[in-house]
Amino acid sequence: MSRDDDATNERDASSGQDARATETAHADATRAVVAARSDGGPPDTAEIRELAAAAGYAVVGEVTQRRREDPTYDLGRGKAEELMRLAADADAEAVIYDGGLSPGQTFSLGDLLPTGTAVVDRPRLALELFADAADSRAADRQLELARLCYELPRLREAVARDASEDVRLQPEGDSRVLDVEKRIESAERALDEIADERAARRAERRAAGFDLVALAGYTNAGKSTLARRLADEVDDPNFDGEASAPPAERADTAAGDPADDAGALAVADRPFETLSSTTRRATVGGRRTLLTDTVGFLDGLPHESVRSFRATIDAIRAADCALLVVDASDDPGGLRRKLRASLSAIESTDGPVIPVLSKADEVDADGLAAAVEAYETAVADLDPRDAPVADALRSPIPVSARDESGLADLADAVADALPTATATVEVPNGGDAQAALSWAYDRSVVTDVEYAGETIAVDLAGRPDVVAEAERRLRGAGSPP
Ligand SMILES: Nc1nc2c(ncn2[C@@H]2O[C@H](COP(=O)(O)OP(=O)(O)OP(=O)(O)O)[C@@H](O)[C@H]2O)c(=O)[nH]1
Ligand SMILES: [Mg+2]
C-alpha cells in the first residue's frame, strides 16, 4: 500500500449528509468506505480518514450513524445495509470501521458486505500502519504480539463458525488456536528479555551520569521534531523544523543498540512515523540527558495492543522526567480526546511529567488560551483511577520546535524536575585529585572550582547517586594512601 496517497484532502467537508460516495480514488490505492457510529455527538471521521490515507486507502465514501451499539453489526441493521449498498456502488475493496468490532460483528458485517470486501476496524488499521513502519527487533516483536492478540479471538470465532459441534463448544482446543497461543507466549518472552535488557541499559546510563528524559504523547503530536530540536548534535544538516527533512545517520552512539535507534529522524506528517524508541544526547538546563523519543499513542486501541507496546510505556514510566507532548493546534475536542488516551495509556510514572503544548507557532494568543483551557478541563475530568499520572500535572509549557519559542522555559522546567543533589568538597591538590575531578566533570555539573594554595574547593550538582560517588572519589583522591 502506498503511504503518500492523500485521500484525506479529498474529504467533502460541505456535505452534511451521513452517507455519501466521493469519486476520488487514487489509481493504485485500496478503495475503502469509512463507517462510524457514535452514541454521543455526531461521529467525527477526520482522524480515521487520516489513518486510512496513511495506510494507503483511498476513501471513496462514508456512512455514519448516531445510536447505541447494535450487537450484530455495531451499526443498526438498516445502516449496515446502507453501508453494504454504498460499498457495492463505490466498488470498495474494504470497509474501514472507526471503532473496535467484536469477532462476531466482524464476521456478520463481512457476510453482509459484497464478497471479498475486507472489514478493517480501528485496531486492525493501526496494526497495518505499524506493519508499514516497524523498523527494529523490538518493534517487530511488539507488532507480532499485538497482531496475535488481535487475531486470537477472531480465529476462535472462525473455528467455532465452521467446525463440528464438539469443536464449536471448545474452539480453544483447535490446533490453530493452540499454535497462536504458543506464539503469543513466545513473543511475550522475547519482549520480556528486551525489557530486561533495556532496564539494564537504563541503569548503566544513569551510572554514567545521564538523566533519562522521555518524550511521550499522541501520534503526530510533534515528539520527534521536538526531540531533534533539543538534541545536542543536530546531525541532519537539512533539518530546519520542517517535515521534509530526509533521514540521516546518527553520529551519537551513546544509545547502544542500533536497532533501538532507527527511524526517528525522518519526521513526516503521518501517524506512527516513529515506531521504536530512539535515544539521543541532549544538554538541557546544563544537565546531560539522554532523550528518548517514543511511539505515539492512538485512541481506541484494545488494552492488549497498548500492552504490546510496553517498551514505549516502560521508557516513559522509568524516565527521570517525561515530557507529555500535546498538539496546541488541535481543536479543543480533539486535544481533550488525545490527552485522555495518552494519560490512560501511561497510567503512572516514576518521575515527574511535564506537559508541553507543541506547535505553538500554529495558533494565535486566543488559540493558545483555548488549548490551555482544553488541557486543564481534560485533566480535571479524568478519573484518577484511570490515569493516576494526571494527579500531579503542572500547567503546560507552550513551545514551538519550528520557531524555537518556549524551548528555554522547557529546559528550565526539565532541569528543575530532575533529581538533583549538590555538594561542596575541599580536597588537597595532589594524588589523584585531578583524575577524580575529571570523573566529576564527565558525570555532573561542576559549578565552581577554586584553587587555594594546597587545596581545591569543588562545587558540584547532578544526579544524587553520581554526586555522592564524586564526593567519595574526591575525598579518597585527596587523602594520603
Ligand atoms: N507548525 C509546526 N509543526 C510542527 C512542529 N513540530 C512538529 N510539527 C509537525 O507535526 C508533524 C508531526 O511531527 P512529528 O515530530 O513527526 O510527530 P510525532 O509526535 O513524533 O509523531 P509520531 O512519531 O507519528 O508519533 C510533522 O509534520 C511536523 O513537521 C512545530 O513546532 N510547529
Ligand atoms: Mg515521532
TrEMBL record:
GO terms for molecular function: GTP binding; metal ion binding. Residues 1-46, 235-261 are annotated as: Disordered. Keywords: Coiled coil, GTP-binding, Magnesium, Metal-binding, Nucleotide-binding. Residues 211-422 form the Hflx-type G domain. The keyword Disulfide bond does not apply. Gene3D superfamilies: GTPase HflX, N-terminal domain, P-loop containing nucleotide triphosphate hydrolases. GTP binds at residues 217-224, 272-276, 293-296, 400-402. Residues 1-13, 20-29 have a biased composition (Basic and acidic residues). Its cofactor is Mg(2+). PROSITE patterns: G_HFLX. Residues 177-204 form a coiled coil. Mg(2+) binds at S224, T274. PANTHER family: GTP-BINDING PROTEIN HFLX, GTPASE HFLX. This is GTPase. It comes from Halorubrum miltondacostae.
